[in-house]
Design goal:
- Helix content is about 0%, strand content about 55%.
- By secondary structure, it is mainly β.
C-alpha cells in the first residue's frame, strides 16, 4: 500500500494502475497547535463526490465543543448560519441522549470534550462540489467528557447546509477561542469508480 492511496491498485495491480472504487486518496494532512480555527481548503471538490476526514485532538482542551463550517470561496469566508445537525451520544456513566438544531452557526462535531487524554473523530462529506445539492457531513467521535470525571463519550450524527451551493472548503473550530485547539487531521478523496 502506497502512502497516499489505500488499496492494491496503487501498486499497479488490478484496474490498469488507477485506484479502484472505494480507495482513499490522500488530498492533504496537517498538524495544528493552539489554533482558534483550522481551515481545510483546496479539497478537490471537483474531483471527489465523497471526502473522508480524520481528526485527532492532542492538546489540553477543557470543556470545548468543536464545530464544522462550510465555505464557498475556498476559505476566505464561511457559512455561519442556517446549518442543521442532529446527533446522538452515549457515555460510560449510562447517559444516552440526542442533540439537534435546525438553524445554527455550525455543525456539531464533538460536544463538551476534555481532550487531556486525547480524543478524535472522523467524518464523511458528501456533495461538496455539487452546486445543485445540499452539502452533507456524517461524523463519529470519541473522547473524555469534560469535567475530569473519567466519563468516556461517543457521538455520531450528521448535518448539512440548508441550501444548494458549491462548497470548496471547511473548517473546524472550538466554541471558545482560547487556548485554541491542537492536533492533526487528514483529508482523503473517496474513489467512486
Amino acid at each position: 500500500v502506497g502512502p497516499t492511496t489505500f488499496g492494491y491498485q496503487n501498486l499497479g495491480f488490478g484496474a490498469g494502475g488507477s485506484a479502484a472504487a472505494g480507495a482513499l486518496t490522500l488530498i492533504k494532512a496537517n498538524t495544528f497547535s493552539g489554533d482558534s480555527s483550522v481551515t481545510v481548503n483546496n479539497i478537490e471538490e471537483d474531483v471527489y463526490d465523497v471526502h473522508f476526514f480524520t481528526c485527532e485532538l492532542t492538546g489540553s482542551h477543557q470543556d470545548i465543543t468543536i464545530f464544522f463550517d462550510f465555505s464557498t470561496d475556498n476559505g476566505s469566508s464561511f457559512l455561519t448560519a442556517n446549518l442543521a445537525y442532529s446527533k446522538s451520544f452515549g457515555q460510560t456513566d449510562g447517559t444516552f441522549n440526542q442533540s439537534t438544531n435546525t438553524s445554527l452557526y455550525g455543525i456539531n462535531f464533538m460536544q463538551s470534550a476534555d481532550t487531556n487524554l486525547g480524543g478524535g473523530g472522523y467524518a464523511y462529506f458528501f456533495s461538496l462540489g455539487d452546486s445543485g445539492r445540499h452539502s452533507y457531513v456524517s461524523s463519529h467521535a470519541a473522547f473524555e467528557r469534560s469535567g475530569d470525571n473519567d466519563v468516556k463519550r461517543f457521538e455520531f450524527g450528521g448535518g448539512s447546509t440548508t441550501s444548494d451551493q458549491t462548497v470548496n472548503a471547511f473548517r473546524i473550530y472550538p466554541n471558545i477561542a482560547s487556548p485554541g485547539i491542537t492536533g492533526n487531521y487528514a483529508l482523503y478523496g473517496l474513489e467512486q469508480s
